[in-house]
């Protein structure tokens, strides 16, 4: 599975890149803040929302610690999507967040 560190993702954002990011945490978790530009799709909603994703794009998957995003990467990768897990999750994120 592809992984990106929180520092590397933050550097990409600081450089002006706009990667496709999906936050798979629950609603109450993202209410505390999420990375600007990320799209919220809770893990359990992924199967029914696959039609919103493009198999030709790379997606960086985000959760609290990296465990749920790893599960999401396994699911999405198995369905033909190009995905990268943000290792360490929001627990290790030191960049900007929005509520």
UniProtKB/TrEMBL annotation:
SUPFAM superfamilies: Rhodanese/Cell cycle control phosphatase (SSF52821). Keywords: Transferase. SMART domains: RHOD. Pfam families: Rhodanese. CDD domains: RHOD. InterPro entries: GlpE_sulfurtransferase (IPR050229), Rhodanese-like_dom (IPR001763), Rhodanese-like_dom_sf (IPR036873). Residues 15-99 form the Rhodanese domain. One of its GO terms (molecular function) is transferase activity. This is Rhodanese-like domain-containing protein. It comes from Bhargavaea beijingensis.
